[in-house]
Amino acid sequence: MSPAEPFPKARHFRNRLWLAATIMLLLLLAVLLRLLYLEVWHYGRFRRLAHDNHVALAPVAPARGLIVADHGEVLAENRPTYAVELVPDEIPDISETLTRLQELLQLSPEDLARFARRRAGKPDFDPVLLKTGLDPRQIALLAVRSEDFPGVRVVAVLHRYYPYGALFSHVVGYVGPITAADLEHFHARSYLGRNYIGKAGLERQYERQLRGEIGYEIKEVDARGMQVGTLHEQAPISGDKLITHLRLRVQEAAAQALESHQYRGAVVALNPNDGAVLAMVTSPSFNANWFVDGISAAHWQSLLANPGRPLVNRADDGLYPPGSCAKPFFSIEAVQQGVIAPDYHTFCPGNFQLGGHTYWDWNRGGFGETGLTKALAWSVDVFYYKLAVKMGIRMQDQTLWRFGFGSRPGVDLPGASRGFVPTPAWKRAHLHAPWYTGDSVILGIGQGYLLVTPLQLARAVAAIANGGWLVQPQVGKALVSPHGGRPIPLPQPPARNLHIAPAALHAVRLGMEACVQSGTCRSVQIPGITIAGKTGTAQVPMGQKDGRTIYNNDSLFIGWAPVHHPKIAVAVVVENGGHNAWQALPVARVVIQSYLAPSTATTASAVRANLQLVKAAARGYSSGLSKGEKGAVDPRPALGSSQEYKQ
Question: Higher pLDDT residue, 183 or 574?
Answer without folding.
Answer: 574
